[in-house]
Write a structure and sequence with these properties.
With 563 residues, the protein is of the alpha/beta class. Helices cover 39% and strands 17% of the residues. The protein folds into 3 domains: 186 residues, 3-Layer(aba) Sandwich (Rossmann fold), CATH 3.40.50; 158 residues, Rossmann fold (3-Layer(aba) Sandwich); 190 residues, Thiamin diphosphate (ThDP)-binding fold, Pyr/PP domains (Rossmann fold, 3-Layer(aba) Sandwich), CATH 3.40.50.970. The strands form 4 sheets. It has a 6-stranded parallel beta sheet. A 6-stranded parallel beta sheet has the order 12-11-10-13-14-15, sandwiched between helices. Strand 1 and strand 2 form a beta hairpin. The chain starts with a strand and ends with a helix.
């Protein structure tokens, strides 16, 4: 292939189908994996993929394929790609589309469709998938001519990757996939686009506000979860001495063993970290995105807020920053670190009192030997056995709050959780993706019994792929978070309990190894053994969620009011 004016010539002159052209365009974008549940409308595409260097990962449900593609985007910054057929296959991607779009994960969905030029099947399985995807994506198009495949693929990849990243969708009808492209069809080379830097005025104003503040505080959000931003933030914290806290999706951006780390805003109000937020007269929000459940609430006439992000702030009744520093986050933060410096007028004594209280609170009951196991002990034991670079992928449930608050993260993207769509069923596929990308790291999915069962069929996929993966199933035979909320609001306990399979036998049926923790002291060695053996392991641990009410509804109210 020869390059000409930002394009790459194809072999269209010798006859290339739309499907073959599509696969060549994906190869040109550097796609490594394609996660899929194919259908008959995808067969030309599948044949083109057969001889491609792109690895096909056959999933057992389209939602899991989408979750894996989105997590690939989250971990690498490159676009993850998934494939479905038409109709029910495409609708099964809807949750994954929302997951990627709200979570700012670059992902492309490809769906099939009946022939659009001549079809003899009436409306069988026909849905307007392009319109269905419109509110859930940055870009959605049907391909109606084989020659337009490369341009649409390049545009979709550009938009999926561009800040703020998200989901895109292309529909490839069966007849267009089989159609021969014209001799003038060519592949577009990705362009080298650089993110703009923030204006000098906004940066200097931010420094002035930081110098004038008496009690500044840094908040780290989801948009900061990038390697370069992580390094810049460490520089800023060390240069200025300003304490920091994180949102759930900002965990690990700066090593949480840092002496200036105050905690995680797992709750929107009423936790120790909110005592620090209330005391602050300036909050520097780095990478905050209002799709996350609010880590704190702004009020008119209250503290000042600086918004540092790739894009401007989405103004909300609880978020209306007074200054926006819009541009490449790492560059902005590096400038603040180099320019603002330490300020003798800053007073962080109150923040350090909060940190001492947080550290004491989180250490309590970490070694409690009650059985069933309480959440604090589960989190503590997982942290003790996971190496510094080990990755945990959390599904959504009550345990996510406990891990966000109690599990110190040491590096960015070592705690994968979703606080945007907060979909159940994402934990196992996310962990599988991490295990595929980083086969030499220890990876653990942390799931509730409810969330695990939503995509548990993917255990077969994990076994088939020879992944090294531990799945910790926190088992309460109920939708535990909703039961907690039900009790908080004074309702009777009703409608949220269910039965579960024998998870040890369930694991064995898929060729995985199952473990049941029957004593609290066995949890840590069981997890350690599973991690060290390799292969796929399911570890079933019964949980005592009575601590939810005691800690979150009773203890925190008393402790934070007296702090």
């Amino acid at each position: 292939m020869s390059k000409t004016e930002g394009t790459v010539e194809t072999t269209a002159k010798s006859g290339v189908t739309g499907a073959e052209l599509f696969v060549k365009a994906l190869e040109n974008e550097g796609v490594r994996y394609l996660f899929a549940v194919p259908g008959e409308e995808n067969l030309d595409f599948l044949e083109a993929l057969r001889t491609s260097r792109i690895q096909l990962v056959l999933n057992r449900h389209e939602q899991a394929a989408g979750f894996m593609a989105a997590t690939y985007g989250r971990l690498t910054g490159r676009v993850g790609v998934c494939l479905s057929t038409l109709g029910p296959g495409a609708t099964n991607l809807v949750t994954a589309a929302a997951y990627a779009q709200l979570g700012a994960m670059p992902m492309m969905m490809i769906s099939g469709q009946k022939p659009i030029k001549s079809s003899k099947q009436g409306l069988f399985q026909i849905l307007d998938v392009v319109d269905l995807m419109r509110p859930l994506t940055k870009y959605t198009r049907q391909i109606s001519n084989a020659n337009t495949v490369p341009a649409k693929v390049r545009e979709a990849f550009r938009l999926a990757s561009e800040e703020r990243p998200g989901a895109v969708h292309l529909e490839l009808p069966e007849d267009i996939a089989a159609e021969m492209a014209g001799p003038d069809a060519f592949i577009f080379e990705p362009s080298d686009a650089r993110r703009p830097t923030a204006s000098q005025k906004s940066l200097d104003t931010a420094c002035d506000m930081i110098r004038q503040a008496r009690h500044p505080l840094i908040m780290i959000g989801a948009g900061a979860n990038r390697k370069r931003v992580s390094q810049a933030l460490i520089h800023l914290v060390n240069a200025t001495g300003i304490p920091f806290f994180t949102t759930q999706m900002g965990k690990g951006v700066v090593d949480e063993r840092h002496p200036r780390y105050l905690g995680n805003a797992a709750l929107s109000a009423g936790d120790f970290v909110h005592c620090a937020i209330d005391h602050a007269d300036l909050v520097i929000n780095v990478g905050h995105d209002v799709v996350e459940k609010p880590p704190f609430f702004m009020k008119p006439g209250g503290k000042q807020v600086i918004h540092v992000n790739f894009s401007g702030a989405d103004v909300d009744p609880v978020y209306f920053p007074q200054l926006e520093v819009v541009g490449d986050i790492a560059n902005s933060v590096d400038y603040l670190a180099e320019t603002c410096g330490e300020c003798s007028s800053h007073d962080f004594s109150r923040f350090m009192d909060v940190k001492a209280a947080v550290d004491k609170h989180l250490a309590e009951k970490a070694d409690d030997d009650r059985y069933p196991v309480i959440p604090q002990r589960i989190v503590s034991d997982v942290r003790k056995i996971m190496p510094e670079d080990g990755i945990i992928a959390l599904d959504n449930g009550m345990y996510k709050l406990w891990f966000a608050r109690n599990y110190p993260a040491y590096d960015n993207n070592t705690v994968l959780l979703d606080n945007a769509l907060a979909s159940m069923g994402a934990g196992l596929p996310s962990a599988m993706m991490a295990a595929m990308l980083y086969p030499n790291l220890k990876v653990m999915a942390v799931c509730g019994d409810g969330g695990f069962m939503m995509n548990s069929q993917e255990v077969e996929t994990a076994v088939r792929l020879n992944l090294n993966l531990v799945v910790l199933i926190i088992n309460d035979n109920a939708y535990g978070m909703i039961k907690w909320k039900q009790g908080q609001e004074g309702f009777e306990d009703f409608g949220l309990d269910y039965g579960n399979p024998d998870f040890v036998k369930y694991a064995g049926a898929y060729g995985a190894t199952g473990h049941r923790v029957s004593r609290t002291e066995d949890l840590r060695p069981t997890l350690q053994e599973a991690l060290s053996q390799g292969g796929v392991h399911l570890v079933d641990v019964p949980v005592d969620y009575s601590e939810n009410r005691r800690v979150f509804d009773e203890e925190l109210v008393k402790l934070t009011c007296n702090l």
